[in-house]
Amino acid sequence: MRIGVPSETKTLEGRVALVPAACGDLVRRGHEVWVQQGAGEKSGFSDEQYTRVGVKLASNAKKLYEIGELIVKVKEPIAGDLKHLRKDHLLFCYLHLAPDPKLTKRLLDIGLTGIAFESVEDADGSLPLLAPMSIIAGRIAVQIGTHLLHQPAGGKGLLLGGLPSTERGKVVVFGAGAAGRNSAELAAAGGANVVVFEKRQDRLREMMN
């Protein structure tokens, strides 16, 4: 299969769908992998790292989409991507179509086959492709919250971990999924008093262990 990895076009999106190691594995399995020039730069991967593992480079998005059968990207397609998509494409990325009926209709009109990262389930019902993003979101939430406690940011001037002469900050987390668990763990590691609300006892037991 010819697999195409385009550069992300959404504002502030610097990720790349496949890192060189993953591309190399696909090449060894007999697939032809194409990556748009510069697609990995914002994630710290040079074009040379891709070509070293057998990847072919496409000079622009138009060529990438013309060659690719399976298009693997991170975020949902926007205008710059949609104009290149065809009926025979298999699109694999985060789609989040529920709140975006216009994009849903556009993809239906194109007639392609789309598989959303967030809909892929393991046998136990977990979402392995959504979990990494939830982990990142959970950790970033604590970093941002800690910053907003500072007086210059409009906060009360609290130190999350407290001091010998002051109380520690209090953090309340709703849900002990991937995002909630990582928020709780990072906040606790920073010295905060953390309370987690979760209706599933198995998740609470997992956190306790």
Give the secondary structure arrangement, pairings included.
Elements: E1 2-5, H1 20-28, E2 32-36, H2 47-51, E3 56-58, H3 61-67, E4 70-72, H4 79-82, E5 90-93, H5 101-110, E6 113-116, H6 131-148, E7 170-174, H7 178-189, E8 193-197, H8 201-208
Parallel strand pairs: 1-2, 1-4, 2-3, 4-5, 5-6, 7-8
Can you give the helix content as a percent range? 25-40%
Average pLDDT score: 96
> By helix and strand content, what is the structural category?
alpha/beta
Assign an overall shape.
elongated
Would you kindly provide a written description of the structure presented here, covering whatever features stand out?
- The chain has 209 residues and is α/β, with parallel strands linked by helices.
- It folds into two domains: 2-119, Rossmann fold (3-Layer(aba) Sandwich); 131-208, NAD(P)-binding Rossmann-like Domain (Rossmann fold, 3-Layer(aba) Sandwich), CATH 3.40.50.720.
- Helix 6 (131-148) crosses helix 7.
- The protein is built from eight helices and eight strands; from the N terminus they run E-H-E-H-E-H-E-H-E-H-E-H-E-H-E-H.
- It is elongated and about 65 Å long.
- The chain has helices at residues 20-28, 47-51, 61-67, 79-82, 101-110, 131-148, 178-189, 201-208, and strands at residues 2-5, 32-36, 56-58, 70-72, 90-93, 113-116, 170-174, 193-197.
- The protein is 35% helix and 16% strand.
